[in-house]
Design goal:
With 48 residues, the protein is mainly α. The chain has two helices and no strands.
């Protein structure tokens, strides 16, 4: 994780997330249903 003073634009995790899209690079996701991600894993994927 980068220092809080050097976060990238958009989602702070997009540089190392394999699911990141252009939206992740532009927008900061809002916390909903316990996650702050535009592309959260489905329950079956998370269990694997």
């Amino acid at each position: 994780m980068p220092p809080i003073t050097a976060l990238p634009p958009g989602c702070a995790y997009h540089p190392r997330c394999e699911r990141a899209t252009e939206r992740c690079r532009r927008e900061i996701p809002v916390l909903e249903d316990g996650t702050a991600c535009f592309h959260p894993l489905a329950p079956a994927e998370a269990a694997s």
